[in-house]
Amino acid sequence: MYKNRHVVAVIPARDEALSVGGVIDDIKALSNEKGISVFDRILVCDNASVDGTASIASTHGAEVIYQSQAGYGIACLTALSLIEHTDIVVFIDADASLQIDESIALLDAIEDGADLVIGAREPALQQAGSMTPPQRFGNLLASLLIRIIWQKSVSDLGPFRAIRFSSLQQLQMQDRSFGWTVEMQVKAIQHGMSMVEVPVHYRRRTGRSKISGTVRGVVGAGIGIFSTIFRLAVRPVKLPLQADRPQP
Asked: Is the separation of the CB atoms in 161 and 91 below 8 Å?
């Protein structure tokens, strides 16, 4: 609970046995000014892991759901299927690349009125080697396309993000793979939502990346991200009537 708001952590995880336990421990340890845990629930989607990720996550106190189809987006969607009601969802990677205590800055931005808050991995706050050259280039190019097409300043597609649950439901997320993060940001823009960036640190991940660690991962991520941008540019989302839009 954070400032009387119910908060859920969603962690997509595939073969993250080396790090997921520590990430969950850090989430559980984060407390508010009254010593109450900031996160009310921790949901881990075991995305076809073969290394014991699920059992480790469960042992450390997370709720675990299994998804046999590999894909970042479908892992997030699967975890979200367990949520009937909450106020805020925070997406956190399982690879120990994030500083969990910086969740507070994201939640404060929601409290200040934002619908979606992106933890922006500013270069000055990145550990050396935390992002590969292809990752940096793809991130910059995707951000540039968003600025050109939708006239919205975006600097990062970082996975560390917080969003009002009511806003997330309105976005009707669909991507099942690498286009998940950019779909969320572009749809938030198209719906006229308040989206802000908060600078966060970014460390070298534990273990091998499923994206930057292989040529197939890099190519797949690029195709997923840019195809999502162009799909949403050609077929904009259908906006609900003003009266139907959820209020903050």
From this structure: yes
Backbone region of residue 129 per phi and psi (left: phi > 0; alpha: psi in -120 to 50; beta: other values): left
Long-range contacts of 66-72 (CB under 8 A, 24+ apart): 69/176, 70/14, 71/47, 71/176, 71/177, 71/178, 72/12, 72/47, 72/177, 72/178, 72/180
| Alpha carbons 173 and 49: distance in angstroms, whole number | 23
| CATH homologous superfamily of 7-236 | Spore Coat Polysaccharide Biosynthesis Protein SpsA; Chain A (3.90.550.10)
Place of tokens 């921790």: 42
Percent of the chain with pLDDT over 70: 90
What would the pLDDT profile of 183-237 be if each residue is shown by its tens digit?
A: 999 999 999 999 999 999 999 999 876 554 454 556 766 788 989 999 999 876 6
Residues in the chain where the model's pLDDT stays below 70? 209-218, 220-221, 236-248
Q: Contact, 138 vs 221, CB < 8 A?
A: yes
CB 140 within 8 A of CB 225: no
Spans of all domains in the chain:
7-236
Q: Which residue bears the tokens 């962690």?
A: 11
pTM of the complete model = 0.91
